[in-house]
Structures are given as C-alpha cells and as structure tokens.
Design a protein that fits this description.
Aspartate Aminotransferase, domain 1; seven-stranded mixed sheet; Aspartate Aminotransferase, domain 2; alpha/beta; three-stranded antiparallel sheet
C-alpha cells in the first residue's frame, strides 16, 4: 500500500516551507511587539505592514482595507455582528448554505430582534436570485453570501448579489475563505463592502485571517482593548502568523492558474472513475472550485466510508471539517433538496498542487474495493 495520501485540502493545508522560513525569525529572535516604539517593535510593525500589502495585492484591495483577525471564523463574526451593530435593526439575508460562522452570528442577531431571511439554492447549489429579490422587498440592512461553498465547491455570482443588495440599500459581505488560492478573488470586482479570507486554507499558518473592509463602512469592533488594527481589532498582533499569511497570499496568486488547471485535471480523472461506480456527484453542472468534488453512493454511510478509506491510507472528508463530528446530513445538501439518506453518504475530495495522477488512480482502486465490501455488508444486514 502507498503512503498516506491527503485529499482534504478544503479543511486545511500544510504549511509551505517558504512560509515557515518567513515566519521563523518572529518565532525565535525577533520578539518585538508591533505596537512598541523601539527597534524590535518597529521591525515587527514593518513586517505586519508588508504582510498587509501582500494580502491586499492577492485580493485586489488596498492595504488600508485589510483588518487582520485570528481566523476566518472571527472575521465572519466581526462582519455580521460588527456591521449589524451600526445598522438599522431590520433584516439580515444570508444564503441557506453558509458556513456556521456566518449562520450563527446571523441567528444571534435574530434573537436580538432582527428578521433573518435564509435564501435557498437550487439542486446545483446556485443561489435562488428570485428569492433574494423577494426578500429585499422588505427593508434589509445586510446581505451575506459565500463566494464558494466549502462542501460542493459551487461558486456564486457575488457581483450580481452585490448589485442587487446595493440597489436596495443593503451592505454586502462575502465569505471568500474557500475561494482564495483556487480562483481569482478581487474585492473591487466583487463590489462587496466586506470580505473574509483565511490563512490556513492557502498553505499559511493557522491563527491568521482577515476581513477586507470598505473604509466607508461603519463597523463596531468585537474585541475591545489596546486599539490595534486602527481600533477595529484589539489584541497584540500575532506577527509570525500575519507574516506567514502574507507570504502564503503572495505564493497563492503566483501560480494560481497553473495550480487550478492541475487540480481540475485531477478532479476530472476522479469523476470519470466515480461515474463508472454510479456515484452521485453534487453541483456537477455548475461552476465549481477546480479542486473540489462532493459525491455520494446510495446506501453507504459517508462516515463509514471515510473511516474505511483512512485505514487504506486516504484522508478525505464527509463534509465540512468544522462540523464533521455531527451525524446530521449536510445542511448544504439538504438545502439542495438532496434526500437525507443520500446526503448522509456524502464524501468530499479536495486536491491541491501536490496531489498526483497516480494518487487518484490508487484512490479509485481502493474506493471500488471498499464500496464492494460495504455493499456486501449492507446486503447481509438487509
């Protein structure tokens, strides 16, 4: 059997050696606090500002629009709760397929008197624009729709969402955590007021994220204290993680097209094999992230198959890594009207540039064997 193969890059990615090299001085000899006025502090501040430029360049924004956070989850909470705190207490509209770190803050605002509209999707995971238009007939202060779904990989037309929301006087936020490093992400072109990105999805360190924020937007900070990040996010800057995030952003855009072509080729190889095994491939006929395939087999539990494949040396996911301990079917697939029994069998494979044709071939061989074994067990149990 081949050595363990990692096919779960939408969950997290390995730290790039070049990123680690950039971080090391700030984990060892360069111990300055970025708010200190001495030489160590100035060196740390310069490093943070260089990283801010690298992040901004990667997403078509200005450095002054980058607010560093500790994670994508924090940035999403900051966007939803922070903007809502300064807006009229009316309606928040989000898609039904959002990550919990958008859904739960929105539900928290609902408990504080806001109206919450969850906009559905069709069977391909495409936003139902007619529903959004209908929801926006009511006074709406904030709309949040993810750029690319973490499970299906389906890409939403955020520029059109933003145009519609702005026309109706609402602020617009997009969670672009899964999109960064896989497709072109341009803050200006998307025309949103705020956008979330994260470091560990692009071979950067865990512990760093950012909210890209239109400076004209009034937002209330979640964390109060020393007033770092121009008063928007207090707390001593995690200089090493921020430096790593900046380097990861620079590297991600450097070979974006090349890596996208490679992962898309691997996915095509995978899905030809999956179709031969009678898999249902979700969002197969819409624009998707090039590296992502989400599929299921009837009468096979996703968790059971994930564990079986892991024992054979392949790391895949049964859905979102942030809620993979749940036995409930994917809320994304349920929103797509996938039958719950089929949704419980969902498996996600997500590639990156390090994966190979040989790995995919080996995976398909093992998958076929494990499916046959599990199907025989189901038949005996029946």
């Amino acid at each position: 059997m081949m050595s363990h193969v990692y096919f779960d890059h939408n969950a997290t990615t390995a730290l790039d050696s070049r990123v680690l090299k950039a971080m090391l001085p700030f984990l060892t000899t360069q111990q300055g606090n970025a708010t200190s006025r001495h030489a160590y502090g100035r060196f740390a501040r310069d490093a943070v500002e260089q990283a801010r430029e690298q992040v901004a360049n990667a997403v078509g924004a200005y450095p002054s629009q980058v607010v560093f956070t500790a994670s994508g989850t924090e940035a999403n909470n900051f966007a939803i709760a922070g903007m809502a705190a300064t807006l009229p207490n009316t309606q928040i509209a989000i898609s039904a397929i959002e990550h919990p770190c958008v859904t739960r803050p929105a539900e928290m605002m609902q408990s504080r008197g806001w109206t919450l509209a969850k906009i559905g999707v069709n069977h391909q995971c495409e936003l139902a624009f007619a529903q959004l238009e209908n929801a926006l007939r009511k006074p709406t202060s904030l709309v949040s729709v993810m750029l690319a779904n973490n499970e299906t990989g389906a890409i939403q037309n955020i520029a059109d969402v933003a145009e519609l929301a702005r026309k109706n006087g609402a602020y617009v936020h997009a969670d672009a955590v899964q999109a960064l490093g896989k497709i072109n992400v341009n803050f200006e072109a998307l025309n949103v007021h705020a956008m979330t990105i994260s470091s560990h999805k692009i071979h950067g360190p865990q512990g760093a994220g950012a909210l890209i924020l239109d400076k004209r937007v009034d937002i209330s900070p979640l964390l109060l204290g020393g007033g770092q990040e121009k008063g928007l996010r207090s707390g001593t800057e995690n200089v090493a993680a921020i430096v790593g995030f900046g380097m990861a952003c620079a590297l991600a855009v450097e070979k974006l097209h090349e890596h996208a072509l490679h992962t898309q080729s691997l996915r095509q190889q995978l899905e030809i094999g999956l179709q031969a095994l009678d898999a249902t491939i979700f969002s197969h006929h819409t624009a998707r992230l090039p590296n992502t395939s989400f599929f299921a087999f009837p009468n096979i539990e996703g968790e059971t198959l994930v564990m079986a494949l892991d024992k054979k040396g392949f790391a895949v996911a049964s859905g979102s890594a942030c809620s993979s301990d749940s036995t409930e079917p994917s809320h994304v697939l349920l929103a797509m009207n996938v039958p719950p029994d089929l949704a419980r069998g969902a498996i996600r494979v997500s590639f990156d540039a390090s994966n190979t044709v040989e790995q995919v071939s080996a995976f398909l061989t093992i998958l076929k064997q494990e499916l046959k074994r599990l199907q025989q067990m189901v038949a005996i149990a029946a």
